[in-house]
Amino acid sequence: MPERRPYVAANWKMHKTSDQATDFVKRLLGRLPEPAMRSVDVVICPPFTSLRATADAARGSRLRVAGQNMHQAESGAYTGEVSAAMIEDAGATSVVLGHSERRQLFGETDEALAVKVPAALAAGLEPILCVGETEDERDAGRMEEVLERQIRADLANVGNVQLDRVVIAYEPVWAIGTGRTATPEQAEEAIRFIRGLLAGRDGAVAERVRILYGGSVKPENADELMARPQIDGALVGGASLDPDDFAGIVETAAVA
Ligand code: PEP
What is the pLDDT at residue 2? Predict the structure, then answer.
């Protein structure tokens, strides 16, 4: 079975100006020992306006930077949107797509994601595709149905050759920003299900794709989540705003 390199991403959402981002990166790099940075992919997802400052502050380190959303077109009359090339131009290597806040608050659809994911890949960006069920869907026993719909639709236009360049984040909506974390068993069950869906396309690729857990991950619960073999890392919201907390999660991933 291939070793999957752990991956920990900080989703800052609508937090941190350029100066605050620069300060965070300095403190994080001062706090994280080099071996941890060598063994884990660490990615910061700032708001668009702080991408360049974050990337500049991270220059010379292994820290990478991601956008939080992207428009699928190369350019055009799309007020308020940014393209893959613009995100790359600001110093990012990756982009979060399909976050539940985009889906729930801003009308992001699986149809749009089916175009955005290949557009990101074509531009050389690593997509971090978020999927996950709501509390009502889980309570109605529909978790697998929802995950299957999202994975099939969002990756419909990604060939198997490119599939292992996609990072997937399983983020149950009921665990995001609520303080209610999925148990390691729940997270692993869902991630195993997602990997099974990918295996239906290509077994070897499915073993290589990193699948993260996201939803109220904190330094205190990171170790029991990361200890699970199916969980390849974390997408961290609230706890990623503090460099010490985020560093603690990265260090946990490094030794898991
Ligand atoms: C997120 O925004 O992707 C997230 C998981 O948030 P939190 O860690 O705050 O639940």
Answer: 61
